[in-house]
Design brief:
The chain has an 8-stranded antiparallel β-sheet with strand order 13-12-9-10-11-14-19-17, sandwiched between helices. It folds into 3 domains: about 100 residues, Rossmann fold; about 70 residues, ATP-grasp fold, A domain (Dna Ligase, domain 1), CATH 3.30.1490; about 240 residues, D-amino Acid Aminotransferase, Chain A, domain 1 (2-Layer Sandwich). The protein has 15 helices and 20 strands. It has about 450 residues and is an alpha+beta fold. The protein binds ligand MV4.
């Protein structure tokens, strides 16, 4: 096992890794930017190294400084968390060639899954169903029109170097495709420095459902049941839950089996997430795979009573999988992402937390690096806390979450707490009747209400 892990991240996920490491008897090193001097991860790690100014490109994305910190503190592994360098194959490679274990999959796996078009091809070869669409990246508009005509509209253009919905554009007609193609290319070029696009049939009334995968270095692979992630705003997840109200035992078993087979086919050796779109006819289609620990992993940990981060660390250290196959979910898990943002404009609302009371009690988990008196730096994302509720049934989990949120107070910054309470009180949500269009409809409904 490792004796010291450097955490190349900040915020709640850095704390999450510190907790897992300490429980495993491993020392931790925090790296921090100048704006994170007073952040909890900096305070709580066994050792700390400043790696540069607030701007992420100068600190949390600064590979030489992070590797320098690892060498200085004699760390034997680096945990990248999510975001920042977590899915950078070059970083994973440099770690390995410096004799430091990268806690994640093989660099070649990160590279493969980073090209969303190649990943689609490879997963089709691994017998996972994919949406109708282009076999490879589309070279030009004529190419796109040909494919769209063959499979029928609506279609969606996605950036091959993208992921997570960045740079996606839909087209309902040939004219719209003509309009959108160049714009999508430009967006992809400026966001990812790569204009390559691929095309898929667009499924509007579907659900975004993901399967957790865990593989070790000895060919053992286990998949865990789904997280329902259809409630997103601007491709940022807002609420996640497990199980999905839409997935029954039969569909779950099918998705788990298909994902395990595919992961085994490519010899997946770490934690990962396979994202699917599930249509009204319970058909599922692979969309993309993420090679990192995800923000919403606690939902799975709660319903399966497992520690995914400890497992990820143990696997990276060469231990065999300890999570057993065929486990069943127990109860219902819900996660609300509490962001420091203006409830009406959704723009980030950094500032000082003047007063704060976070919830607790049986079945409530809070993952947060926030504390009363802390000044939230403006340089990073706006996540301040993840509140997770576990209860025997979905209605009870909703009631538990409502109670927890009602007993939460955050003063000094604006948050999306009111948005969460409004969603939890929505009848469509309560009845589990929702898809990827939910947030758009929800906001339209609520705008109308406030205008009345
Ligand atoms: C789609 C889709 C429908 N059809 N692809 C969003 C995140 C990224 N991983 C893929 N996403 C989607 N891809 C096809 N072919 C629907 C989504 C999607 C979505 C779209 C619009 C508004 C909200 C959404 C929430 C989740 C998924």
């Amino acid at each position: 096992m490792f004796s010291k892990i450097l955490i190349a991240n900040r915020g709640e996920i850095a704390l999450r890794v510190i907790r897992a490491a300490r429980e495993l008897g491993i020392k931790t090193v925090a790296v921090y930017s100048e704006s994170d001097r007073n952040s909890l991860h900096t305070i709580l790690a066994d050792d700390k190294v400043c790696i540069g100014p607030g701007r992420a490109s100068d600190s949390y994305l600064n590979i030489p400084n992070i590797l320098g910190a690892a060498e200085l503190t004699k760390a034997d592994a680096i945990h990248p968390g999510y975001g920042f360098l977590a899915e950078n194959p070059r970083f994973a490679e440099i770690c390995e060639s410096s004799g430091i274990v990268f806690i994640g999959p093989q660099p070649a796996m990160i590279k493969l899954m980073g090209n969303k078009s190649l990943a689609r091809q490879e997963m089709r070869r691994a017998h996972l169903p994919v949406l109708p669409g282009s076999d490879e990246v589309v070279q030009d508009l004529a190419d796109a029109k040909k494919i769209a005509k063959k499979m029928g509209y609506p279609v969606i253009l996605k950036a091959a170097a993208g992921g997570g919905g960045k740079g996606m554009r839909t087209a309902r007609t040939r004219a719209q495709l003509e309009e959108q193609f160049g714009l999508a290319q430009n967006e992809a070029k400026s966001a990812f420095n790569d204009p390559s696009l691929y095309i898929e049939k667009y499924l509007p009334n579907s659900r975004h459902i993901e399967i957790q995968i865990i593989g070790d270095k000895y060919g053992n692979v286990v998949a865990l049941g789904e997280r329902e992630c259809s409630i997103q705003r601007k491709h940022q997840k807002v609420i996640e839950e497990a199980p999905s109200p839409f997935v029954d035992d039969r569909l779950r078993k099918k998705m788990i089996k298909a994902t395990e087979d595919a992961a085994r086919h490519i010899d997946y050796q770490s934690l990962g997430t396979f994202e699917f779109l599930v249509d009204e006819n319970e058909r599922f289609y692979f969309m993309e795979a993420n090679t990192r620990i995800q923000v919403e992993h606690p939902v799975t940990e709660m319903v399966y009573s497992v520690d995914l981060v400890q497992e990820q660390v143990r696997i990276a250290a060469g231990e065999k999988l300890s999570i057993r196959e065929g486990m069943e979910m127990r109860g219902h898990g819900l996660e609300c992402r509490i962001n420091a943002e203006d409830p009406t404009t959704f723009s980030p609302s950094p500032g000082t937390i003047d007063f704060m009371v976070l919830p607790g009690g049986q079945g409530i988990r809070v993952d947060s690096a926030a504390y009363q008196g802390w000044q939230i730096p403006p340089d990073y994302d706006s996540l301040v806390a993840k509140i997770i509720a576990l209860a025997p049934t979905r209605p009870e989990a909703i009631r538990k979450m409502q109670t927890a949120l009602e007993m939460t107070t955050i003063v000094g910054i604006k948050t999306n707490l009111p948005l969460h309470l409004a969603i939890l009180a929505d009848t469509d949500f309560a009845e589990g009747r929702y898809d990827t269009q939910f947030m758009e409809r929800f906001q339209q409904k609520n705008n109308n209400n406030s205008q009345k």
